[in-house]
Design goal:
Number of helices: 3
Strand order of the largest sheet: 1-4-2-3
């Protein structure tokens, strides 16, 4: 009985959405081509480097100029450890960029950070291998 209750509770918790995430979808964001910014990260790191400051500044400027648009922050990590480690690194990278955007006055209600597997990474636009990037996508206005 106790085991069944714990199992039901764990299933319920898994089904709940993340509390801090806004209620808009980033489905299809990786297919958009306008207002997309790529932030490169060194292998195994979630720290924003000096080289990433320019595209990050451009994304911040675009986001501040269009306050009606939501922003998807898609973290990517390829073969940088096991599958669990890679997805955790992708999530950490997305959070780092989301926090940087928020620190520059972009409301948290507009930001949705997600970890994506490498197969969803943009391959043409990224200067770095797509498995080591965060893609910032300004979604079309509602």
């Amino acid at each position: 009985m106790k085991h069944a209750l714990l199992l039901a509770l764990s299933i319920t918790l898994v089904a709940l959405p993340a509390l801090a995430q806004p209620r808009f979808s980033c489905v299809g964001a990786e297919k958009l081509e306008d207002d997309v910014f790529s932030i490169a990260f060194p292998r195994g790191s979630a720290t924003i480097t000096e080289a990433a400051r320019s595209p990050l500044a451009a994304a911040i400027e675009a986001a501040l100029a269009a306050p009606e648009r939501n922003i998807c922050i898609l973290g990517h990590a390829g073969q940088e450890g096991g599958a669990t480690t890679s997805i955790q690194l992708a999530a950490q990278r997305a959070r780092t960029v989301s926090n940087a955007l928020a620190e520059h006055g972009i409301g948290a209600e507009r930001l949705r950070a997600e970890a994506r597997s490498a197969q969803y990474s943009p391959t043409v636009r990224a200067a770095e291998p797509p498995s080591r990037t965060v893609t910032i996508v300004l979604m079309p206005a509602p």
